Structure formats: C-alpha cells, structure tokens
C-alpha cells in the first residue's frame, strides 16, 4: 500500500539530489557558507580570470557607453574606524550596482556581433556569480544590517562611483570589489558571528 506513494516522491528526491550536486540553490544554503574562504575565493578567481581574458582584447572590449560601477578604493584606516552598518551599506549598494552593470554589459554584448563568444560566457558567469553572492550575503544578514540602523543609513556617505567603458575595466572593478570591500566585510561579519 505504501509503495506507490514512495515512488511518487522519487522524482522529487532525485531532483533535490541533482540540485544539491550542482550547487545551484544558494537560497537554501547554510547562513555562514560565505564564511568558508574557499567560496569567496572561487568567485574572486572567476573574476580575475575574466579580467585577464579581457586584457587581451582590442581596445579593452569597448562597451560603447559608460556604465556606473562602485569605486573599489578602500581607505583601511577609515574602514577600521567606521561602523559595521556602514560597511554593510557600502557592500550591499556596491553589489547591487555591480549587478546592474553586469546585466547592462550582458545586454550590450547580446546586441554586438564583433565580440568573441568567450567574453559572453565570462559576463554570464559574472551575472550568475553576483546573484549567488547576493544570496550568500542575504543569508549572512548583510541586507538587514545595511538597512536596520536608520541613523547609520542617514549618516552614510553616498556610494562613490566610477565609470567603466570597457569590459576590461568592468572586470577589474568586479575583481577588486570582491578582493577588497566584499572580502573585508565578510571577514568582519563572520568573526562577529563566531562570538
């Protein structure tokens, strides 16, 4: 009597195993997955690889327009003195802006026939990586920390931005953002969570 019911669950169980094996659902990921340095290092490596590929293309693979991206410069002295809420705002806004920039470059590349397909693959990976990182940071609580203290949000300086007009510059900024502000913030947030 129970066998048909169990067989009905088999496709669902197989789907869950497949999805887990592929590592796709970051939404169901443990909240502290980003605290495993190997996870962030994988995204950094992908960004650096894309940056290296675009360095070799003619004229830095022009995007044909300026795309606004976060300024990745970090004043370490100022960073250490400022509050975690301010860091969260800066990282969250920077990630959102980078996501918009990658999506825009993805659209521009889709309309361009002269750029190699390998560049499209790197942009697609970056779009996917930014979505995953956003989910991982949401699981860590950065979104709540970025919006919870109203005084931190009102006193936070507006996000500094720069313009990227080539894929090379876009990927350099993406790589620097991950290696800089994002890595600093996640390191702090993970240490706070360990206490």
Automatic annotation (TrEMBL):
Annotated localization: Secreted
Major location (coarse): secreted
One Gene Ontology cellular component: cell surface
Keywords for this protein: Disulfide bond, Erythrocyte maturation, Glycoprotein, Hormone, Secreted, Signal
UniProt superkingdom: Eukaryota
Cystine connections: 35-190, 57-61
Function, as annotated: Hormone involved in the regulation of erythrocyte proliferation and differentiation and the maintenance of a physiological level of circulating erythrocyte mass. Binds to EPOR leading to EPOR dimerization and JAK2 activation thereby activating specific downstream effectors, including STAT1 and STAT3.
Family affiliation: Belongs to the EPO/TPO family.
Protein name stated in the entry: Erythropoietin
Source organism: Oryctolagus cuniculus
């Amino acid at each position: 009597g129970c066998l048909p019911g169990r067989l009905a669950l088999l496709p669902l169980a197989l789907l869950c195993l497949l999805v887990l094996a592929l590592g796709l659902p970051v939404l169901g990921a443990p909240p502290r997955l980003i605290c495993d340095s190997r996870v962030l290092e994988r995204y950094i490596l992908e960004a650096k690889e894309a940056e290296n590929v675009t360095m070799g293309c003619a004229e830095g693979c022009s995007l044909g327009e300026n795309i606004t991206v976060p300024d990745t410069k970090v004043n370490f002295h100022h960073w250490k003195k400022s509050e975690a809420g301010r860091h969260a705002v800066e990282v969250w806004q920077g990630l959102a802006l980078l996501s918009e920039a990658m999506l825009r470059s993805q659209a521009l590349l889709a309309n361009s026939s002269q750029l190699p397909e390998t560049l499209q693959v790197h942009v697609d990976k970056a779009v996917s990586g930014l979505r995953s990182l956003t989910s991982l940071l949401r699981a860590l609580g950065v979104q709540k920390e970025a919006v919870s203290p109203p005084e931190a949000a009102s006193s936070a300086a507006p996000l500094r931005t720069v313009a990227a007009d080539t894929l090379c510059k876009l990927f350099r900024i993406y790589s620097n953002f991950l290696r800089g502000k994002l890595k600093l913030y996640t390191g702090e947030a993970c240490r706070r969570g360990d206490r």
